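Objective 1b. Sequence-to-structure analysis of non-reducing end alpha-L-arabinofuranosidase.
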Amino acid sequence: MRSSSRFPALAPGLALLGALAGGPAGAQTAAPVALTVQVNKPGAAVNKNMYGLFFEDINFAADGGLYPELVKNKSFETAPALLGWKALQGGANLDAYAVRAEQGVSAANKQYVRLTTRAGAPGEAGIENEGFRGMGIKAGGEYTLSFYARRGPGSIGGLTAVIMGEKGQALATAPVTGFTDQWQRYSVVLKATGTLNKAFLKLVLNGAGTVDLDVVSLFPKDTWQGRPNGLRTDLVQLLKDMKPGFLRFPGGCIVEGRTLSERYQWKETIGDVASRQPLINRWNMEFKHRSTPDYYQSFGLGFYEYFQLSEDIGAEPLPILNVGMACQFNSGELAPMGTASAKGGPNAEGAGAPGAATSDPSLDVFIQDALDLVEFANGPASSPWGAKRVAMGHPAPFNLKMIGIGNEQWGPQYLERYEPFAKALKAKYPNIEIVSSAGPSPDGELFDKASKRLGELNAEYVDEHYYAKADWFRQNVGRYDNYARKGPKIFAGEYAAQSVSTGSPDNKNTWDCAISEAAFMTGLERNADVVGMASYAPLFANVDAWQWTPDMIWFDNLNSYGSPSYYVQKMYALNKGTQVLPVTMPGGAKNGTDNLFASAVADDKAGDVVVKLVNYSSSPRAVSINLAGAKKLGKTGRAQVMASADLQTQNSLQEPKKLAPQESSFAVRGSTVSYTLAPNSFTVLRVAGKK
């Protein structure tokens, strides 16, 4: 933080410029650019949930990320069945180790691993787990190891658990004894003596013979709010610090699946964590240049946990459900309408990639899943699905208010499924707001047709997505200026500036991308009567296991950091205000003229006027802001500034806050604010005052 005492009262912007740009403050001599903020003519209300989060399990965002289970394929249910596991020393001292399914722990957890070792063999007998690109272990940290075991013939009465380092060092060791010939659950806490980003778990059998193991878990005690199945603390804290208005989950294209059988089914992700069936992740082989065949969803982070996370960070939950369509970039598989035969397939208009239709399940099943989800979230304990929520430990309703029908589907197949879906939801839950899809592109014939039809159907929100190069965002700052002021609200559900090209593995989270997003967002804010919600995407990325870039927050097994885009989003979310204030550019020019972008809001709760300014220029720029109609202004304002002379600046694990907001104060005299914007800067000015 920059102390306000470091900046002269009469020229704080110039002093800040000198600090950030390295040049003398007095070098700026150009006449100030005159802006007018109509404080006395407030416009549309800003949605209190305007800026939120989009979560999708891409880039190892869940397993290996936000969900801190350290063991990969803990229940041996994932195919190939021994994924993540290998025998100690290549298995030379094991007669056999293989996945079995006879008399498993439960009907929902049939598979387990059987280990058989012979007496007198040299070395250690057992298995080890690699984790998710290793296991992050912290010195002094406590990790709960739990598993089910059943002893077979022989003398194996227990095992020794060891958390190991890459160089063979033991970070924690604990014996587990008392194995019997019946399945029993065992648990022990291991306390680490060292810190390592890529440790692994070793289970060494004590004795000779046969033993069965299942549901092997190594879970840190340090979780968000100390929950046994809790989330990773540093990642949740980054989310909470943004004070997001909503959390959209679980995606994204994994909602759709490559086929309908691989779609995300929320009912399979609640209840006993050990009984949740894993599913291949839709992103594991999507990009040949980033193939990750070991990418599966354990669903330890399921819908209950998503609702709980939303509550924890103060965000409205926004679940997105499958509308009876597999991803149109993959199979394009369609659920039949009701009991009729399926429509679509390779020759259907707008069907996307070729795919075969399916006859089961019908659309009615998808609709019922949506109705049941509302009951799960909001229903009383006396209702079937409400009772399941209560049984999981949350007696109070989650107060679900919004639901999304489909992710980013397009074409007539989507519209014909959306209509009965929305009708059924509204019939039973008329107060639930529905988010609909305009497809993956922000323009074109299919986009236009979808937008028109959804307006005719009185849709409440239309989800628009745009991934494009940075200059697109600056050039389209006026995108919503000419939208109809009545009709569906816009949900800018996925957007991010691409430094190279959409989907390129060479995209970087540069300042050029982030400042361009900041410029675009002035257009979202100025049109708050049209745009009701917005979220950057994707949210998370593991530095060792990503499929898509750029991303808002990056992490490894121990550390995390926010990209410049994270801080832009945070600055908007923390300064969203309550009402739009009209901003007039010099000579009535459009927002963005000469690469100067501006928006303003009144924050009635704080009693402040908030002005956001983007100077996309390599030169400093003086501005004179007339706060027209403002009364009783404070004598001092507060500024938050992100600026870098190098548009390619990035944050990293080594320099997590290389580019982050810097704070200062500035003097306010009369109703005009004079300020000098640093080169390549995004600035938020707050002035206390009343209309």
